[in-house]
Amino acid sequence: MNYAELANAGVLNQPVYEPGKPIESVAREYGLEAGSIVKLASNENPFGPSPLAIEAMRNAAAGAHLYPDGACTALRAAIAKARGLSPEAVLVGNGSNEIIELLGHAFLRPGLEVVMGSQAFVVYKLVAKLFGAEPVEVPMPDFRHDLRAMREAVTERTRLLFVASPNNPTGMANTEAELLELADSLPEQVIFCFDEAYAEYLDRAPDLRGAISSGRRVVCLRTFSKIYGLGGLRVGYAYGDPDLIALLHRVRQPFNVNSIGQAAALAALGDVGFVEDCRRRNREGRAFLVEGLTRLGIETHGGEANFVLSRIGNGQEAFRELQRKGYIVRPLAGYGLPEFIRITVGTERENAGLLQAIEQCLAARMSGVGG
After folding, report:
1. What is the sign, positive or negative, of the torsion defined by CA atoms of 371, 338, 199, 16?
2. How many C-beta atoms surround the C-beta of residue 144 within 10 A?
3. Of 31, 55, 94, 327, which has fewest CB within 10 angstroms of its CB?
4. pLDDT exceeding 90 applies to what percent of the chain?
5. Could you tell me which residues come within 8 angstroms of residue 213 by beta carbon, excluding any fewer than 6 positions away?
6. Architecture category of domain 51-271 in CATH
């Protein structure tokens, strides 16, 4: 008898999340120096963490022998103050991915459904299947969530409905008015999970706090992995009705967020100048990439996050060609977009180098020479 015969039946059919390819793997595979490789695959902040967060990490390291504050008391209080909430309305997780899983623990089981966009963040589907629920994928015309079609997809079996705005991997955003209309229209058994991972890149992010306070079943998710530059520490948070948040606390692990991550997130949250500077530089870099890729004849959608979506032909082939030149991007066949790649906005030097590398790949294709 092997382990597969002992495993729960659903495990054998569970898809596996494929992260962006690590720099070290590319260096080994292509014989490159790790320091020369530019990773533009995972929507990380190329400007790193804020100096305040780095200093906080150094200070917190001395206490790493102690268990962290399991309730994330200081961080929850700071988030609550920044968002105009009570601490009881906030839950901190090991990245917002953990919170998506906690929603599954609390609300999903076989026979139920989860509504999501067809090119939405793949973890929504993975979590639905993990708990035996059925993922219901709604087409996304023009790479944007069709909120009215999503509402029409809701049945009496629907428990969770996910919308990310801006959406990953397409970058497109929905308006606040559209999102509030959806929230108001949903039946009581449906929890609207609004994923705001890229909200800080918007000049004005949609605000659903009024819907929460008026009794709508809405939970919002944010992360410190993107504009705050703390992806390696895995810190995210949710906010919503305190009764819903209390249920999520019941299913989370006791010490789910490490002490260094808590300290860094607390410092980063207060570094408003750093966030504003990253937002500005990202906007400039995104425009540079869109203009440059369009000039090369590549259909590119800039969206409103920290990446662009480019129709490059064979996305997997472009992925391999660019790796040979020391650039890691994200192919999107797994999202039903085999002709596309997703490119994270990098520094000025990284963006310019990537465009040069793509131009060389295109020229090599035209001449029939391998990239």
Report:
1. negative
2. 20
3. 31
4. 89
5. none
6. 3-Layer(aba) Sandwich (3.40)
